Amino acid sequence: MLFVGDDWAEDHHDIELMDASGRRLARARLPEGVAGMARLHALIGEQLGEDADETAEQVVIGIETDKGPWVQALIAAGYRVCAVNPLQASRYRERYGMSGAKSDGADAHMLADMVRTDSHQLRPVAGDSAEAAAIKVVSRAHKSMIWERTRHMQRLRHALRDYFPAALEAFEELTTPDALELLAKAPDPASAAKLTLTQIRTALKRARRRGDIDTKAGKIQAALRAEHLGQPAVVAQAYATTIRAATAVLATLNEQIKTLQGQVEQHFGQHPDAEIVLSQPGLGPILGARVLAEFGDDQHRYTSAKARKNYAGTSPITRASGKKKVVAARYVHNDRLIDALLSQVVPAMTASPGARALYDELRARGTDHFAACRHVANRLVGILHGCLKTRTLYNEETAWAHRSAKPEEAAVAA
């Protein structure tokens, strides 16, 4: 076996090769890119000999990332690549000394020694398909833009509160096309008060608002013309300049979010697991794509439903010492995945009587709403794992059969 520590930076990699006894065989600083990868293959080939291609699986590489062309090239070469969590690496580094000293070469040595002694405890980089990787790229970009839109909307709201509170009463949602159009046209109290009903109705119709347009337009005009405390005219004009910029950014984000949503649906619809994922209660094309992207589609990555739940962060953790035992939620998890899974819960409780019954039971025991939702999400992850493993679609009766069984039958099954 050959163990390699790879401490990566933006433009170079510090490499150390180590044998099974912990003896350093070679070390080097390699450039990022094709030239660096070729030199790494040469270093490994010198140690493995002429049969390097046939024994590539005997090479274990530790690196503190699981993505990028460099990692993909390592996997394509047949090496076993372990993505080491930076927090794990930091804790492991303390075994060598408590002084806090750190260098790139020392980190490469530490990573090589870590995969030498603890590779059985580390998770190899998943071999997801190119289709799953594509879904991950577009779904993450889509969600990132939604988060970015929320940040910009909050900045807009804070600015309006400082000088134009009437706008907050006039527009319930600041990211809608009609609100952005009217704010861009009249970004200060004086100009907003001059907006006519025709201008407001036109904006509402262009945004395809439903219902009584005339009534909505009247309410918006009345709110914009109501008396409020304000700022001096020169200050209001300065704020108006920033509001125009903010509305332009939000309009662009709305457009790009819609474009990316189409890309997410297109890539997700082409994946062979899409039908199974969409059969789950509460998962549509967007949430389903996020769940599939973050879990990946490597069928050997999760050995059991428990392993998938642990990665999802929905399963609890137990801290036991002596007579003390505490069961708590996992707070170290994939934020994007847990966000998608918790978003699934509410629509799932509408579509699935079993999910609703479990939530109601937990609430009746005194469990708070968030903990109950996390528990339901944990159960739904287990159901998804079973469906993917057996290549079957979701079935309500099968998924919740253990809860509908009679008490004596459930006891026997346990």
UniProtKB/TrEMBL annotation:
Signal sequence, start to end: none
Keywords: Coiled coil
Gene Ontology molecular functions: DNA binding; transposase activity
The Transposase IS110-like N-terminal domain, residue ranges: 4-165
Any GO BP annotation: DNA transposition
Positions in coiled-coil regions: 243-270
Record-annotated Transposase IS116/IS110/IS902 C-terminal domain positions: 275-359
Superkingdom of origin: Bacteria
Pfam families per UniProt: DEDD_Tnp_IS110, Transposase_20
Annotated PANTHER family: PUTATIVE TRANSPOSASE FOR IS117-RELATED, TRANSPOSASE FOR INSERTION SEQUENCE ELEMENT IS1111A
The protein, known as: Transposase
Organism field: Actinopolymorpha pittospori
